[in-house]
Design brief:
Helix content is 91%, strand content 0%. With 144 residues, it is mainly alpha-helical. It is elongated.
Length: 144
């Protein structure tokens, strides 16, 4: 029973996070777009899972940051220590978000490179096909 009440509290916290934190809603929207795009484009499963894991890390740190800020706001005082603690929590979110963005850039650049190579390979194949067809037609025309 204790486990179920813990799950209920965690679910309540997630609902509050997405209801009250605009950054969390934005990060969730980005997660949905990225994971759905990777799945629809049939990226390798490992890349899709890595993107999902990074997004989950960003969201988890966003929840931690929100908890730290709310807890420290209860003190109602403005001190350098409280400001530093809030900044450190926000910095953790920023680190994860930068790493997630770098992973996205790396993934997309790898895919772009693969697509570019495929396009070049297909271009040469198309040219070769045209040359073969043209040569065949030319030879057929000479026989008549």
């Amino acid at each position: 029973m204790r486990f179920l009440s813990s799950l209920e509290a965690a679910w309540s916290g997630l609902c509050r996070l997405f209801r009250e934190e605009p950054n969390a809603r934005l990060e969730l929207a980005i997660l949905e777009v990225v994971v759905l795009s990777l799945a629809l484009l049939r990226f390798p499963l490992v890349l899709t899972l890595a993107a999902g894991a990074m997004a989950a890390a960003v969201l988890g740190l966003e929840a931690t940051n929100a908890a730290v800020e709310r807890t420290l706001d209860r003190f109602g005082e403005r001190s350098p220590a409280i400001g530093a603690a809030k900044d450190l929590a926000a910095g953790g979110v920023l680190i994860a978000a930068i790493l997630a963005a770098l992973l996205a850039v790396f993934t997309l650049s790898s895919v772009a490179e693969i697509l570019a190579k495929a396009m070049v390979a297909n271009w040469w194949a198309d040219v070769l096909t045209l040359v073969v067809v043209w040569a065949t037609l030319f030879r057929l025309g000479q026989r008549r």
